[in-house]
Amino acid sequence: MAKFQSLSDSEMAVMKVIWRSPHPVTSSELLKVFSESKGWKSQTISTFLSRLTEKGMLKVVKKGAANYYQVAVTQEEYRKQETQSFLENIHGGSVQSFIATLYDLNDITPEDIEELKHWLDKR
């Protein structure tokens, strides 16, 4: 991916389905999933697939008349880039600031702190 771009909630929903798929997917396969759960139409799916391709998240392979979409960025690669972007943009790159915010919000438990200590000790 050339320049990192975060995904919208809808783009993320599409990517989660594609990441879970053991093979490249077609827009028809995605339509089956999202027409029931979200009421999306074919054009909506096409729009998201185009955006995800432009963002470098997907590659398109044409087979006959069908386009098959395959992962260009793994879920782990995306998670790393999204986390780095979040830390830089929201916390100025400071992990301490991030953890302090979680602590101040009571979103981090003593068990979490112990788990972090053990993880850091292993590093």
TrEMBL record:
Presence of the UniProt keyword Transport in the record: no
Keyword presence, ATP-binding: no
Signal peptide span: none
Alphabetic keyword roster: DNA-binding, Transcription, Transcription regulation
Pfam families, alphabetized: Penicillinase_R
InterPro entries named among the record's database cross-references: BlaI_family, WH-like_DNA-bd_sf, WH_DNA-bd_sf
MF terms in GO: DNA binding
GO BP: negative regulation of DNA-templated transcription
Protein family (similarity comment): Belongs to the BlaI transcriptional regulatory family.
Protein's UniProt name: BlaI/MecI/CopY family transcriptional regulator
Taxonomic source organism: Youxingia wuxianensis
